[in-house]
Design a protein that fits this description.
With 131 residues, the chain is mainly α. Helix content is 81%, strand content 0%. The protein is globular.
């Protein structure tokens, strides 16, 4: 077994244990950061001409954003949930366009929107978080 394989297995175990012990609030934070990370990977691959890697990273970012969208709970605040769902749909669309057109500006826009959501999420006072 080579060193890279061992490192990848170690990362997988670390991530799994982090997910297993995370609160719902922390899980959303992890998903938002994961999507932003995949967008960064996609942009680097796009700029490097690595088409397959770009497509894989964009696909993973879209899957994360889609999961965030379908996981929304309209029972708490239906109007807010609907608006946030529309924002997630828009981000998914921009990611798809970025992939199809090799558009770094669309990637930047999607990442900026996710960064704003992440900052807002992090700013929720502890007493309002579902732990």
């Amino acid at each position: 077994m080579n060193a890279q394989t061992v490192m990848n297995q170690y990362k997988t175990v670390g991530l799994k244990s982090g997910v297993d012990s995370a609160s719902p609030h922390q899980l959303i934070d992890m998903l938002l950061k994961g999507a932003m990370g995949k967008i960064s990977e996609a942009k680097a691959a796009m700029l490097g001409g690595q088409i397959a890697l770009k497509g894989e990273a964009v696909g993973k970012a879209i899957a994360i954003v889609e999961y965030l969208r379908v996981s929304l709970d309209p029972g708490i605040d239906a109007a807010f949930s609907e608006q946030l769902g529309e924002l997630y749909r828009y981000i998914e669309t921009r990611l798809l366009e970025a992939n199809l057109k090799n558009d770094t500006e669309a990637l930047d826009e999607a990442q900026a929107l996710l960064r704003e959501l992440s900052a807002g999420w992090a700013g929720i006072p502890a007493e309002y978080r579902t732990e």
